[in-house]
Give the backbone structure.
Amino acid sequence: MFEPVLLRNVDVPDGHLLTTYEAGGGYQALGKALREHTPDEVIDLVKQSNLRGRGGAGFPTGMKWSFVPKRAGKPKYLCCNADESEPGTFKDRFIMERDPHQLIEGMAISAYAIGAETAYLYIRGEYGLAIRRLEQAIAEAQARGYLGTRILGSDFSFVVHIHCGAGAYICGEETAMLDSLQGKRAQPRLKPPFPAVEGLYASPTVINNVETLACVPHIVARGPDWFRGIGPYKSPGPKLYCLSGQVRKPGLYELPMGIPLRELVEDCAGGPPPGRKIKAVIPGGVSAPLIPERGLDVGMDFDSLAAAGSMLGSAGVIVIDDSTCMVKVATRIIEFFHHESCGKCTPCREGLNWAVKVLRRVEAGQGEPGDLEQLEALCKGIFGNSFCALGDGAAVGLRAALAHFEDEFVAHIKERRCPFH
Amino acid sequence: MTMREKIEAAAARYPDQRSAIMPALVIAQKQHGHLPGPVLEEVADILGVERIWVYELATFYTLFHTEPVGRFHLELCDNVSCMLRRSEDLLRHLEAVLGIKKGGTTPDGLFTLSTVECLGACEMAPVMQVGDDYHGDLDIARVDALLDRLRATARQATGADLAAAAPPGE
Ligand SMILES: Cc1cc2nc3c(=O)[nH]c(=O)nc-3n(C[C@H](O)[C@H](O)[C@H](O)COP(=O)(O)O)c2cc1C
Ligand code: SF4
Ligand code: FES
């Protein structure tokens, strides 16, 4: 039987308070890490656990940490990526609103491992309740000696500062986040140098997602074998899945990595509304290519979804039923990317602008022969030629919609109207 | 604390004053409701940074407003998960009952209506943000009830209070 750990406290009244967190064994992992392990040993534990980043790309967390130079002669920084702006995704908000100490403990242990004394928690400015709860939790942790100088009698000192974003999706891209933290417009930086070597203020910096950091106390407390024993060998552990769209029970579910998408949608989330059939599912936020109904027997982990031509991404699962026009969905997704394009590179900035115009025309029943070829050509021009993953994500998403639902696009053009309206 | 003190306290968290521009703009916007030129210049002066850096950020990020907005800013999400749960119907309804188009402000200055990208609360789609608060699982009846509550809140404040009042949720 799978035992949820990340969501253990989210439905507990006062789950956001230190007393609740401590009553469930909270901050014991921090004490254990400081007393029993060197920083390198903590990095090893995380490596052995095979924890892969939960922010989208799935990069192995322990390996990322080990890239931080041991002697840099500069301060090192930890950045928590709490920007969470990928449409369909709300998992980090749950942790921050309802169990913020889990994140703070994870940040403290992670900072100890990489040798950082300062962390910035970059949270989207819209998350008012989460910001208030985090401020309260940081104050509580500070008062109890879990943050501050010489934590729990050790030599380790650590502070967490909250930095609020102001409504730009691109801030979630890690190097754009660093520029935003440095008071600039958020635009991605060229890599290398990678942030682990030259990040915030040109100092070694580790950037991790909220859920990734929240896994760390459990790995320290229960051991890497426990973590690796859950789900597939290559991407193990408990995972938060965000279910939304046309399902009966939208919500946040914690289940093992690798659970079949069909089980998640049909059993956990109760399937489509009465009388409806599932048409397609977006498995990992709108950057992840959609999967048509016949493809739902795929495991929800990094490798299985990549093999199926999509990606786990943020695990923001959006369910679309048979009452919905796929041209409309594709148009809305590309409008989003167009709106959020930072404008740094031409393929994304101009290509998405053009794609939106063509898509709107097709959706309105004013499509022309050749429009689909046009869209295909735009995808080709954007994919692989854009500076960051935003452009690529938009192109693969549009391509998947065109490939799987070509008939709907063709019908719009031929009938000169939307067949769903 | 005065605005200057708040900004100086925020700036102490960073090794570089430029990093404090965003937090300073958040503080200034809470104080003034929006960010007209003179406020941006004041922020630059307090931090001792180039004015153009401050202008650059105030115009790049969507949460900063250089133009005034209504007492209540209704920000309705119309991204995919909300669209799939008919946020469009709510937009049409709001436009009709407020007598304004998306982007507009009611003549009494009470409501500004916008659509926004995903609010990160798709489990309660369709969702609308007003000030610091999220309102989810919306339908037309709930939207009407919310508007009534907001109007009542506004009526409670006298004219003088209204001018000085911070946006809701603070
Ligand atoms: C356009 C774009 C938006 C992103 N948004 C987020 C986000 O909101 N939250 C997040 O954790 N990662 C986001 N990422 C991924 C980050 O760049 C980065 O890979 C991640 O924060 C690393 O943390 P992890 O190793 O713990 O996954 C985004 C990437 C791109 C390209
Ligand atoms: S791909 Fe788009 S978001 Fe990324 S750098 Fe280029 S313009 Fe900016
Ligand atoms: S799509 Fe509306 S809150 Fe996410």
Observations:
- Chain B touches chain A at residues 13-23, 25-26, 49, 53, 56-57, 60-64, 78-81, 83-85, 116-125, 129, 131-134, 169 (CB under 8 Å).
- Residues A 170, 188, 341-345, 348-349, 386-388, 390-391 surround iron/sulfur cluster (ligand 2) (CB under 6 Å).
- Chain B is about 50% helix and 10% strand.
